[in-house]
Structures are given as structure tokens and as C-alpha cells.
Amino acid sequence: MVVKTLRQLLKHCLLAALLLAAGSGHAQSVTKIAAGGWCSFFIKSNGSLWAMGKNDSGELGDGTLTNHFIPEQIVAAGVAAISAHDPNLFLKTDGGLWGMGDNSYGGLGDGTTTNRNSPELILSNGVVAVSGSNLRSFFLKSDGSLWGMGFSDYGVLGDGTSTSSGNFTNRPEQIVSSGVVAVAGAFTHSLFIKSDGSLWGMGDNGYGELVDTTTNEYDRPVQIISSGVTAVAAADWFTLFIKSDGSLWGMGYNGQGQLGDGTTTDRHSPVCIVSNGVTAVAAGDEEFGHSLFLKSDGSLWGMGYNFYGVLGDGSAVDRSSPVKIVPSGVVTVATGAEHTLFLKTDGSLWGMGYNADGELGDGTLNNTNRPELIVAGVSATNLTATNWAFANKLFRFTLTGPAGSNAVIAASTNLLTWTPLVTNPLGSGTLSFTDAVATNFPRRFYRAALTP
After folding, report:
1. How much of the chain exceeds pLDDT 90, in percent?
2. Which end of the chain is flanked by fewer CB atoms within 10 Å, N or C?
3. Which residue has the higher pLDDT, 246 or 214?
4. DSSP 3-state assignment of 294?
5. Taking the model in full, what pTM does it have?
């Protein structure tokens, strides 16, 4: 009777865990992501905002200064976009701009230099996009105007202030009056695209990140490319952009191969990295940068700094040429200082790289050099479990799924903290799993999911 009761309990626990991994009709898929220095955010399809990772400046916005290594809900509904660069900003569907985190240089634009560990309303309406970098923030309004606030060293705000150390503004100020459609900020420089496809920048230019062999700093916007630019990413000392023909270009610092041109030579003029098919690009904002991009076939590629496995290629080796990470199904990518997040077509969230502050949200503080599932999507993974049994201190079950795919199995005693157990191929479509457990072990849950 005891064994039968235990078996029934395990059966129900296993089913609950598998539903979490495979997705159910009540689940919410992830729709947008943002990776900050050492924290991560995502928005679900119901408009809720979730966060994990470092929180010593209140950057997660949960009202504490406590790091979190599993996802935590910050806002219940109505969030439309997020920028994670401490201070962290998000937009609500009504056009309101909110922020939290490090405000020591006025990057929240609230007129103070006081850090905020709960979301604070900055503007009540009219905002359509946000971006930022360490200690400064940018946003676009519906009239196409570009605004900035916070730390202005290197002239990176583009407001004409001196480039000497210590300048900042703690109120939003207008940088460009109209025509801006996208903005990207890094610690050393900032870039924006206008509606005519021209690319503009301001700030430091010591490595040619603004395409100028003089290495001058610019405290006002200067035109970099006259037309044809559709997307841009900025990281410390280097720039990446996509043109309308799907080609990917880069310039600036290249010491770890982050420009992906096969060298580690800095570039003071744009170099073509990929000639066609690129749809999105992201650049890590740490001193030693990494770069990732998506192609139109849904494949994810990376290059540059890789010490913590941030490229997800199974190694810690820097790459000076693009390496394919995921062959298909990726729709969005975001880069933090030393970690990477991406979304797949089923709304599942994946991550790799540095995790000592919990930024991967997997319930551990372990780094990983392979993509791991963080939040499952709602599309069925076609993964089921059968033949569960408990006998002789062993718990067994069989997984059935797509032939040739890999299954990740994890265990938990509380459905919050998960310990990865194995990652094994399903081979012809089945995998038998056995776990040795003590007779008096506490309630134990199992979760299974497919890797990309």
C-alpha cells in the first residue's frame, strides 16, 4: 500500500512537471526579452513582466535588493517593451514610461539621483521605444523625437555638453526633434536610425566605432551612413548594423573577434561580415564584447568573446568568424554583459553564459556553454512520459518524443529550484530514465524538455 500510494504521488508529480516543460493550454508564452549587465527580463503574452539575476541597485524592481535565480513576476499586465541596462526602463501599452534601478547619474530622468527598487512612472504617455546603457537611458516619442538622460561622459547623450568626466542630466532632454525610428546605446557611444535609413552616432570614437579615423569624440550627432540601414546594435567600443539587403556590417574594436570578419584587427570603417539574409543583431555590453545575429532561416550565429560560454557553442573559445549556435526556430536574441538570451518560435526562452548572479533564471548559479531552457513555450513539444514505476529505491520512466532530439531532465522538491540531471538523445524516439532515490526521500518532481 505504501509503495502504491508513493507511486501514485510520483505519477501526479511527474505529470505536473512535464506539463510545465511541454506547455499547456493555460501557459503563457514569452514574447519579448532583454538582457542587462547581469540581469534578465522577459514579457509574457499576457503582458506580465518577469525578471531574474543581480539586484543590488534594485534593478529588478521587486522592492528588494536581493538577487533572484528563478524568474520573478514584477508587473502583472500591460507591459509592452523592456530595456535592461541599469537603470532599466519599460513601456506600458498606454505609452507610459517606467523605470527602476541605478539612478546615481539621473538615468531614470526623475529629477533625482536616488536609486529605485520598485517601478517608478517617468512619463505618462507618448513613448514608443526605449534603449539604454550603463547609467544612461534613451527613449523615442510618437512624434519621432529622441530623448536622453543620465551619464554623459564621452558626449554620448549627444546634447552638446562637455565630454569631461562627471557630466549628467537627471531630467529627459531632447536630442533630435523628429524622424528617429530606432536607438541603441552603449557605455561609450550611442547610435540611432532615422526614417530615411541614415545611421547617426555620438560619443567616443577611439576605436572607430563612429567611423572616423581621427578618433575624435562627438557631443552632437554625426552622420555615419547616409541610407539603407534597418537595424543597429552598440556595445563598448564597437558597432554592428544591418542594411536593407540583409547584409551585416561592423566597425570599431575587434580584439576578441566580435566583428566576425575573421581577424582581431580594429576597423575604422565598416566591414561586411555577412552579405545577406541577416534579420536581427545584438551586441554584448561588457568590455570584451560578444555579438550574435539571426538569419532569415531562423538560425542563430555568434562571434567574439566566449570565456563563460556566452556564445553557446559548447566551448569557452573566442570566435573571430561567425559560428552557428542554433540551426533554426530562433526569432529574437538579446545580449547582456556575459550572458545571452533567445526566443524560439514556440515562445520558449533559452539562455547561456555567465550565471553567477542568477541571470539565466534556471534555479542555479552555474554557468553554461550550451543553450538551456529557461521558460517553456506553449506549443506542444510532443514529449510524453510513460511506464513510471518505483521499486528497489529506483524511480523509472520512459520519454517519447521526436526522433533524434535531445531531452533535458531536471528534478526539484519544491517546483521552484530545479537541478539538471541529464541531457540525452531520444535516438529513435524514446529514452528510458532511472533515478536512484532514498526510501524516505521528500516529495520529488521531474521536469523534461527538448533542447534546440
Report:
1. 64
2. N
3. 246
4. strand
5. 0.81
